[in-house]
Every structure is written in structure tokens, then in C-alpha cells.
Amino acid sequence: MNLSLYATLLKFDQIDTSILSKKDSSYVNVKLSIVLQGRDLEEHQIELMDVVQTVIGNFLAEVLITAKGKENFKKMIVNLADKQYGIEVDFVYIQNIRIESDPLEKCRKLLKK
């Protein structure tokens, strides 16, 4: 029996978006770098970016940075890619997650005081 696996890696580096913070119901900036592993992923870059952005939007900042939140984030990417586009993602590797408070929102709050 000859078994071959042709898995590819697709890297999304420095995804920059905003998500809601539970702490004060404001938006915070999220910078995220991830690697997806699966078959023929290069052909589906646009769809996979849509999946990643959709999944990020389902998380509060405080939840996303926890171990459980990261695991749920990975599972949701795998499940949504398959369900919505029929794309099989085998693994999701998080290289970096960075949460920053929105500097414009901070300035607005300071000006209001």
C-alpha cells in the first residue's frame, strides 16, 4: 500500500482587525498570524481569509487570548471552512495573537473628560 499525503501550508501573516472587548464594550485591535495546513489551500486563499475573519468576529478579545479560546478558534476555522466552502483544513497553527486597545477610542474618551 502506497499512501501519499500532499498537505500544503498557507500562511496569513499580520491579519489586522477589530473585535469587541467584554471589559468596556469597546473595540480593540487584533493582530494575528496563523498557518493553515491542508490540501490545495493555495487555491482557496480568499475563501479561507473570509472564514478566518468570520471566526475572529465571533470572539470577545478576553476570550480569544485564553487557551480554551484559542482551541475553539482553531476548531471553528476547521469546521466553518468545511461547512461553508467544502475546504478541508487539517490543522491551524497560531503563530501570534496581539490585542491592542483602539488608540482612537482612547483619545475620544480622554477628550470627553
Into how many domains do the coordinates divide? 1
Number of strands: 3
Q: Over the alpha carbons, how many angstroms does the gyration radius reach?
A: 17 Å
Q: Please report the first level of CATH classification, the CATH class.
A: Alpha Beta
What is the helix fraction of residues, given as a range?
Answer: 25-40%
CATH topology type: Tetrahydropterin Synthase, Chain A
Question: Main sheet: which strands, in order across?
Answer: 1-2-3
The termini sit apart by 72 Å
What best-fitting shape do the alpha-carbon axes yield?
Answer: elongated
The CATH H-level superfamily is Band 7 domain
Q: Could you please describe the fold and organization of this structure?
A:
By secondary structure, the chain is α+β, with helices and mostly antiparallel strands. It contains four helices and three strands; from the N terminus they run ββαααβα. The longest helix is centred in the last third of the chain and has 19 residues, at 67-85. The protein has a single domain, classed as Band 7 domain (Tetrahydropterin Synthase, Chain A, 2-Layer Sandwich). A three-stranded antiparallel sheet has the order 1-2-3.
